[in-house]
Amino acid sequence: MEAAACAEEFRRRLDAAADATESALDALLATAPLPGEIARPTRLLEAMRYSSLGGGKRLRPFLVIESARLFGVVGEAALRTACALEMIHCYSLVHDDLPAMDDDDLRRGRPTTHKAFDEATAILAGDGLLTYAFDVVADPKTHPDAGVRAALVLALARAAGLGGMVGGQALDLAAETAATPLTLEETLQMQAMKTGALLRFAVDAGGILGAASVAQARALTRYGEALGAAFQIADDILDAEGDSAALGKRAGKDAERGKATLVGLLGLDAARARRDALVAEATAALRETGLGEGTDILAEAARFVAARRN
Ligand code: GRG
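That is the input. Now the predicted structure with geranylgeranyl diphosphate docked in place:
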């Protein structure tokens, strides 16, 4: 596809994925299984809705939907998986914003969940989103094949848990108070876990739903890993450039806190060069899927992630 047309089509599909995710999340939260009407945790439900509706780029849902589309999978299976992943992403933001972690007042241009509600409710809202995500994926409504559902649950648990996002967050927090800073290799591993794992899951999920061949699944994983690394470097660059108002944090905050950033380790120019090399790597990996022009939109997504300003 020609470059300008591809960029336009990408925006259209990102917007469509965001709209579809918003409506589906709204419906899922409105119909969350509860034992009855006698004791509804209404404040918790309200906080879960506040934390997950009405904001965000919905990049992860877009990646699930578009990677599933590569294999001709469209509809409920991809959308429900996309919503589950977004619930986990939203939970991580709610917990990351808590005073015990990043202590942020603003997220997606609004007060953070613990500011809008209270800390205990924010913790529970995160917990509620995390557990409901697995409920949604494991539900037969997501896919009729129990093997597919189990593969999704396992991949999502690995991406979100100890060896993924939660473990990466723990390593990042430990680095803030450690006697010696993380090495480049350690920083890359920590970032791959903390932010890369959920992005990688997004495209792995498309392969699972689409019954990708082993070679295609491997290529998608390579794409997801390169995209995740590019996403994180772009975040570090935004922080260093002082362009982070839209991220809801003060410029240079991460570096100042002793957080391991690639800009701190490599310098701005080398970080930018690395980001661009990762976009090329992501694009090359897509070619390896053998799915031809169908992957153009995902290549555009890698460029978007690297160039993002928020
Ligand atoms: C608290 C278990 C736990 C984990 C937190 C991912 C993470 C781990 C914290 C997020 C902190 C943060 C702001 C990291 C920078 C990268 C990032 C994940 C940014 C937010 O993702 P976007 O840009 O956000 O996709 P939107 O709002 O568009 O969904």
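Residues 56-57, 59, 89, 92-93, 95-96, 101, 108, 165-166, 169, 194-195, 235 surround geranylgeranyl diphosphate (CB under 6 Å).
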